[in-house]
Amino acid sequence: MFDFPYFISMLPDIWKAFTETLIMIGISLSISLIIGLPLGVLLFVTDKGLFWENRFVKSIFGFAVNIIRSIPFIILLVALFPLTKLLVGSTIGPVAASVSLSVAAIPYFARLVESSLRDIDKGVIEATIAVGATPWMIITDVLIPEAKSTIIRGITLTVISLVAYSAMAGTIGGGGIGDLAIRFGYYRYDDTIMISTVVILIIFVQLIQLIGEQIAKSIDKR
Amino acid sequence: MLEFQNITKIYESKKKQIVGVDNVSLTINKGDIFGIVGYSGAGKSSLLRCVNLLERPTSGKILVDGIDLTKLSGSKLRIARLKIGMIFQHFYLISQKTVGENIAFALRAAKTPKNKIPTKVTELLEMVGLTDKRDVYPGQLSGGQKQRVGIARALANNPSILLCDEATSALDPKTTLSILKLLKEINQRLGITIVLITHEMDVVKEICNRMAIMQDGRVIEEGEVYDIFAEPKEPLTKEFINSVVSFEIPNEILKEVNGQVIKILFKGDVAGEGVISDTMQRFDVKGNFLHGTIEYIQERPLGIFIMELQGETAAVNEAKHYMEQRGALVEVIEHV
Ligand SMILES: Nc1ncnc2c1ncn2[C@@H]1O[C@H](COP(=O)(O)OP(=O)(O)OP(=O)(O)O)[C@@H](O)[C@H]1O
Ligand SMILES: [Mg+2]
Question: Where is the ABC transmembrane type-1 domain (chain A) (predicted)?
Fold first, then answer.
């Protein structure tokens, strides 16, 4: 079963795989935050009854988001190989994998942002409209701060999904923990590596969950 | 001056149209504290929200000092809104900003120079009596305190009109009184016109000088609060008045009455008791008081008495006529 000396000898490989996973998650999370946050806000404020109500914009972006979200990630991964090649010049390695991870995570995070904003009491938004605030002030000073802690929880969820997706991406050239698990655990029946990767992933996800929740709680002033 | 001209608001829902406001025209003068009362669903909020165009009227005009707000949009409308403050039943403060930041937000909306904001916030906090709460978050305040922050925010940009949508309905009676007192102070000190909607007649009696009663989207009666309290015309108005000045005479007592039951009303400074005792002396009638009170509305006394008059029909009629000549309003409630 678990061969401890062997585990120690494999530590450098495990560490390398883990850093690759971190790179994938880091890049794709950053991109999905940068694009997904404004996209989520846009989906919300173009909604019926809001200050930038716009059915056209709302349905175009809403449709695009739904399309991407309805494609299983493994298929999206392969389908985006040409785009990855164009952007990164290769389809191998964690940076390449980040392209499709980002494409998958952007709409996911955008929807989470949109639903966080939907939880804000409409009256609060209206009160600030009545005060004469500009739409930009309402977005930066009301919507984002009021939804801040649910958005943080959304980031946590996005990271956790990215962990799962990155493992999948790993199996077809992305590297990282998923790749390690498949190569050793699956093809070579290597229990030690299998158990190690599972444990690492569990600890990692728990940690993210814990930190995310802690931050979300500590910044909430309600 | 705030004028509603033929305001109609129709809500389009999936299947049917709902008429929220039905052709309302009202004039609210500068410095008024104008109360709009009505039961739930009467269209009070809809009408009030048309003033700052939170709700765009389906037709009609909203004139503020002669300018039609319904013609404005975008930044022009935003600028007009700076001069119309609004407070709400549920306060609607930004929960993630401190009291000071909530007020500063309104000042920033008006592009107040950054270095002027802190002093302005201090002044506003002083006005509403919350100087020590500047760095506290709304979640740590009581309802009354939250409403004070709402008032400070609404007054930040020196508005000429303050709209209050059930501003005291979520508060206990004592806190309600303190908020009403603050509103009255603001009205007198700053000359701000206040339009408030409520379903509590007490609130109107406490601070309003003029009022309107709404039913099914229409204004069914309007005028000076004192006059409406003295002589309500519509049944609904009477119902509302009865909720604060009630003259229910128990049936047991009515059963034993064998004369005519009348309600006598003395407006203003007419000394009611004197008139009644003169009447009793002059005419061959006997009077029994069943109920009596002097209400102070807008600091003007309104004497209301209910009594039974016994005697010959002719004498009773003469007595009533005499009281009317002396300035009383006499109404027969029950013939026996
Ligand atoms: N956004 C809306 N969409 C559809 N119908 C609405 C909307 N707002 C109000 N109405 C309808 O318009 C009518 C008047 O509502 P309004 O809220 O103005 O009444 P109100 O007098 O303020 O009542 P309350 O005392 O309960 O606040 C009601 O029949 C209500 O259902
Ligand atoms: Mg209402």
Answer: 18-212
